[in-house]
Amino acid sequence: MNENPWKPKWSAEQIKTMLLEQAEVFNRGEFGIQRDKLADVERAGKLPHAVIISGLRRVGKSTLLTQVARKLGESAYYYVNFEDDRFIGFQAQDASYLYQILLELFGERKIFIVDEIQNISGWEHFVRRFMDMGFKFYITGSNASLLSRELGTRLTGRYVPVELFPFSFKEFLNFRSAEIPDLKRMKTTDSARLNSRLNEYIKSGGIPDAVNYPELPLLRTLYDDVLYRDIATRYRLDGVTALKELALYLLSNPSSPVSFNKLKSQFQLGSVNTIKSYIDYMENSWLIFAVNQYAYSLKRQQIAPKKIYAIDTGLCNAVGFGFSPNTGKLLENLVFLSLRRNTSEIYYYISPSGYEVDFYLPQSGQLIQVTQSMENPDVREREIRALQDSIGSLKKIKQALILSNTNEDNFKIDGVPVKICSVAEWLLNS
User: Fold this and answer.
1) What is the pLDDT of residues 91-140, one digit of tens each?
2) Contact in structure between 124 and 116 (CB atoms under 8 Å)
């Protein structure tokens, strides 16, 4: 029995044709708008480490690689896309043969640009071997767990991770060629126009192709690809009905706490572990994020409900169901994504009196509340009381922030400064 099914399938000429086609497509790929993460990639490019770019499908990883490649020069690198179905069966031991063909085609180069490497079992072995020979790697992947596990075993200390998210609000405005106002000299019309753009951003999200072609059902296709290709196939799930129902429920209820026990009963699954596994799979595939309630007890954190956030608000609007606009929850989701771009240590907090604070950032000692408007006196009292109760119980709070539809004067709670800021302006500054 042949243990290496890829190499016998293709002649050297067929493989050369594939690589030439891939290179041509990549080299004429759209440059797009310059992504904020390009600076991080360029800094990492000066190091001998592998640069690992991970994120959701269609989030722009290949475009980011194109932006890197243009600066390197076409003659500096080899490009390989393992998403190509002609690589089915490729194994780590085939890498030397592939390199031999690349040498024959393009001559000697010292940089590899590799797309969707998680499709190759044992990829970290050949990356490590080639790095030991002095090669530089820029790599993309769509599975966070798979990458981290393999990076931890073979490339410890020899890689720089870069997480790529959908467009930020600023990137969205740049993509739409919308004017970004001077935040220090905002007029009433500027604020109104910016809030209108924010509503567009909430509705469309930040997946580049979906923003560019809103008339096409691209987000639904993306959602199906993640569920079937990145989850069901990769984790060898026999049935996907429960997975689909759970994913639909979570994306229909963004920024909401969920109990694994209640979900088990609701979807009639036999074990809480099944719910936990499904949510882990969705997190690993960059579909959702699960946030813990902050508690001094680790056990309490583990058993408390999680708050679920989606990778993209446009995805929620495209595949979720609801009978009324969910703007407040989607606004909170946008704030989470902005925070998550800079840190993974994010919690929500329940005060001793039962008030919920949307975000607690222990590293900076910051509490953050998100609300559509502070005009309603009951809403204002609720948001401020939640902060007051939490500041008194946590004892380590250095600052608090309320994000709403407009800026207001700052004030203090028990000596802790509290700012009330426009969400739209905060998103552009964060």
Assistant:
1) 989 999 999 999 999 999 999 999 998 888 888 889 999 999 999 999 99
2) no
Residues 70, 134 within the same domain? yes
Percent of the chain having pLDDT more than 90? 81
d(CA 126, CA 392): 54
Torsion, Cα 73 75 81 85, to 10 degrees, reads: 140
Do both 334 and 219 map to the same domain? Answer: yes
> Which of 128, 163, 198 is the endpoint of a domain?
163
Residues found in the chain: 430
Q: Do 68 and 111 reside in the same domain of the chain?
A: yes
Kindly state whether residue 1 falls inside one of the protein's structural domains: no
pTM of the model: 0.94
**How many structural domains does the chain have?**
2
Q: Both ends of the chain: CA-CA distance in Å?
A: 57
Residue 103 lies in a domain: yes
Pairing of strands 366-370, 347-350: unpaired
Q: What angle do CA 332, 192, 37 make, to 5 degrees?
A: 50
Whether 287 contacts 59, CB under 8 Å: no
pLDDT band at 302; cut points 50, 70, 90: confident
Q: What are the DSSP E strand ranges found in 311-365? A: 347-350, 356-361
What amino acid occupies position 170?
A: K
- pLDDT per residue over 399-411, tens digit each? 999 999 999 999 9
233 found inside a domain: yes
